[in-house]
Amino acid sequence: MSGVTDLPFRMLAWRFGAGFVVTEMVASRELVGNAAESWARLRNSGIDPHIVQLAGREAHWMAEAARIVEANGADVIDINMGCPAKKVTGGYSGSALMRDPDHALSLIEATVKAVAVPVTLKMRLGWDENSINAPLIARRAEQAGVQAITIHGRTRMQFYNGKADWDAIRAVREVVSVPLIANGDVDTLADADEILRRSGADAVMVGRSSQGRPWHPGVLAGAATHPDAAEIAAIFEEHYTMMLEFYGVEVGLRAARKHVGWYLRFAPDLAPAEKAAILTSRDTKLVSECVASAIACSGRDTVREEIAA
């Protein structure tokens, strides 16, 4: 969810009742090197608890970054060993760490020892179908002091293809006693109930199903109801404004485009040429007004159909 769960998105999701929200990946070495992007990803604004996700490939930089994160208000540090993106795995971070459990554990141990706040871990089932080692790593991570574990029910080589294997997550449940969180293809309340039943997990994490729907985790948690068309239009306008203020207009225009595209799913009658014009426009006032109007005019029933799709 890099590029998605920035501070504006997290603030909205939290307000709508998400139990926990986690920052985008903060690259450990870049944070220690004082990279502006890493500091932006670290920012918080009243969300409690403040959970920061760290990524890296070397124990030294993970420990140093963890100390910085803790000193800057993090209540929990989550280690990313699940990202399948080539840019990340090519640097031997994210899910690439699952190819070398001993090395992965050295990062986990260094991070846990560096801070007093809880450290959690997110990973996949394994690198590929021939190396399903999540249970092994999870057991060793618990022994190293990790206090919760999230499993995405795919291997890295599956990326986001096919269907997440919710049953395979149960093998991790059988070897750890810390809270287990299940992730992958959870879009509805029925999905949430089913993944909990089949995996034996204690909680559910959602990612891609919340794109363009910051209220969605709160709905699954029973803390919010599905908004109607007019409410979605208002949420979009607020979200868009927050992004422009957070990034500045120039960067904000680019960062917001993917979100604009997702919100436009709630305006299915908009012509392709009109959508293209909105997505490429540099007139922020025009974008905000056009998207909000298109969503509001789509009608409640259309929005309900999109949510159920």
UniProtKB/TrEMBL annotation:
InterPro entries: Aldolase_TIM (IPR013785), DUS-like_FMN-bd (IPR035587), DUS_fam (IPR001269), DusB-like (IPR004652), tRNA-dHydroUridine_Synthase_C (IPR024036), tRNA_hU_synthase_CS (IPR018517). Gene3D superfamilies: Aldolase class I, Putative flavin oxidoreducatase, domain 2. It comes from the Bacteria. Keywords: Flavoprotein, FMN, NADP, Oxidoreductase, RNA-binding, tRNA processing, tRNA-binding. Its cofactor is FMN. Pfam families: Dus. Its EC number is 1.3.1.-. It catalyses: a 5,6-dihydrouridine in tRNA + NAD(+) = a uridine in tRNA + NADH + H(+); a 5,6-dihydrouridine in tRNA + NADP(+) = a uridine in tRNA + NADPH + H(+). PROSITE patterns: UPF0034 (PS01136). The keyword Transferase does not apply. Residues 1-266 form the DUS-like FMN-binding domain. SUPFAM superfamilies: FMN-linked oxidoreductases. Belongs to the dus family. Catalyzes the synthesis of 5,6-dihydrouridine (D), a modified base found in the D-loop of most tRNAs, via the reduction of the C5-C6 double bond in target uridines. This is tRNA-dihydrouridine synthase.
